[in-house]
Design goal:
Layout (H helix, E strand, L loop, with lengths): L1 H7 L13 H43 L6 E4 L3 E8 L11 H18 L6 H23 L9 E7 L7 H19 L11
Antiparallel strand pairs: 1-2, 2-3
């Protein structure tokens, strides 16, 4: 009987699970891994571009604008003005520079750990913006005066009646907004979509 079943095959039983081909499962796993690795590349590419733009802009500002008059870009509505910021956004918390440094470092570690489970391109872009921005401001905190973990961040974009900020801050805000939008749409970092 066993020989007959192996030659003829067993009849399909209604409701029975079809046998999974181990080779097909392996191909699907390889495809998923490839998609995940592409998203990781996208994340780190966005982060590298955001970080490079922030770093280059700050180098130019320190070399050409610091200790000089502000440059008006759009009348008095927007100007470039070099300032050093010991605190967070809007100059708040200037006595907590070390804490902001630790928070930035923790954000970077969390994003790098989350990257392994990333299968969504929009999430890769959002996290890349956050990572690049956090790295940009962390670099200032570590390597600028007055010292390690207490460095002041270089800010230079000064809209009228608003806080002075930099490209790292812009990347962080854009990444944060994108994460909020993705969360409202129900898209998770692993690529699944859920509806509440």
């Amino acid at each position: 009987m066993a020989e007959a079943e192996s030659i003829i095959g067993t009849p399909d039983v209604e409701g029975a699970e079809p046998e999974q081909d181990p080779q097909a499962e392996g191909v699907q796993g390889d495809e998923k891994a490839a998609k995940g690795s592409r998203k990781i590349v996208a994340l780190f590419t966005v982060a590298a571009v955001a970080y490079a733009l922030d770093l280059i802009s700050k180098m130019i500002v320190v070399a050409k604008l610091e200790h000089h008059e502000p440059i008006e870009i759009i009348g008095d509505w927007l100007r470039f003005e070099a300032i050093r910021n010991a605190g967070a956004a809007f100059g708040m918390g200037q006595a907590f520079t070390v804490i902001f440094t630790c928070i930035a470092a923790a954000v970077i570690v969390v994003i790098v750990r989350l990257a392994r489970k990333l299968y969504s391109l929009p999430w890769a872009i959002a996290l890349g913006l956050l990572l690049g921005g956090a790295l940009g401001n962390l670099t200032d905190r570590l390597f600028r005066a007055p010292g390690v973990f207490e460095g002041h961040v270089v800010d230079f974009i000064a809209p009228k009646n608003f806080a002075v900020f930099n490209l790292a801050d812009s990347a962080i805000v854009c990444g944060g907004i994108l994460i909020v939008i993705l969360s409202f749409k129900g898209l998770d970092p692993d690529g699944t979509v859920h509806k509440d």
